[in-house]
Give the backbone structure.
Amino acid sequence: MTARVPDKTMVQTVHTVDHPGIGRWNASAVIGPFVTRARKSVLLQNAAWLFAGQGLSFVVQAFYFIVLARLLGTTQYGLLAGAIALVGIASQYSTLGSGILFLRYVGPDHSRFRLYWGNILMSVFLLGTLLVVGLMIFGHWLVGAASVPLLFPIAIGDCVFLQLNACAGQVFQTFEKMKFSAAINLLSSVSRCLIAVGMLAVLGRASAWQWAIASLVVSCGSACVAFATVTRYFGLPSFSLSLLIKRAGEGFIFAISGSTTAVYNDIDKVVLSHFGMNRANGIYSMAYRIVNIGTMPVSALVGAAFPRFFREGVKGIAATVPMARALLRRTAVLGVGISAAMFFCAPIIPHLVGKSYAESVSALRWLCLIPFFRCFHLSAGDAISGAGHQKFRLISQSIAASGNLLLNLYLVPRYSWEGAAWASLATDGTLGIANWLAVIYLSKRPARLLQTMD
């Protein structure tokens, strides 16, 4: 039976259902309050925008990586993965943490926009250029010889254009305009997908070098659109070298934090490339790519909550811990579902990307717990950073990154991609425990003592 009832904002249908054992159940009585709370919750709205954007990105990237895998094949895909992983680790320093500094200082005071947006631009173009030169000089010692020619186009694209694109997304994140942040990320994904489809249709099979050049063009275009969008909505930047120098120390800590994250996520691909295991790298990187795409729903919730950690963090760690616990309760449920879906759906991989990736089924089943582990270390880590204790997060991440590197150097030569998978599981699981232990420690220490330690 249905009945029409008035509402302040909309006409709502009330559904009543006969339910065995409990009689008549009013669906709107249960769903209505939830919808009302969702409308009023900025966090849920922002998470919805990010999830919608990342949901579309999920579909686009899922199709894109299928096309790219078929376009390159396992060996060329492995060559590309090794170069991208090394550049990804280095590129964290091209912003010198200026994107996070923007969140930290512009979030509480929006009038600081112009100076901190100017800092982002100076950091990206000055430091990004230096990193490109450094990678060209020293990169051949770190990745396999076959991946070295790929470093130049990938470094320009990632250290300059991709980082500018990411920081533009953080600007909109700071102002809690998540639909623009989601749109910027989606534009890059759609552009890459279209390029990959075009190359597959025209060439049938391409080299990693050809894809690196195409990706550079896409990154440049996306960065230009992102800069124009930020300028359109918030205005032109203002440059202050003194402010850049003043915040350099704090920004360097954030940069190291980002770099250590990249290390424990991607150093395994660099090690596989270093030992010339390009086919194994392609198999493993395919599975890890699925893990990253599958973690998008968790990332959407974490990203939506991140600015609030900084705003509440001015009150100390006591204000961010309840937020971290609430965030963990929400994301852990998603993490379990994602991990289960990956385990049971893994056999689909060779049907989608080709029989040469058959071993990626086993690799994904080894890695499927990583989204669940990330729920723990991301929620606790954001509570630490938001309260201004980034050094503690940096310590745990540095230990995790160092441990991951040592494990990979020992395990990869002996067990190939399986060793890399074991190292990844151990690293993410340990980091989750370490970050929550740090939260407990910080919560129990007197505020005055923490200030002296920081």
Notes: The chain has two domains: 2-37, 41-453. Residues 1-35 have pLDDT under 50 and may be disordered. The two ends are 63 Å apart (CA to CA). The CA atoms of residues 370 and 425 lie 6 Å apart.
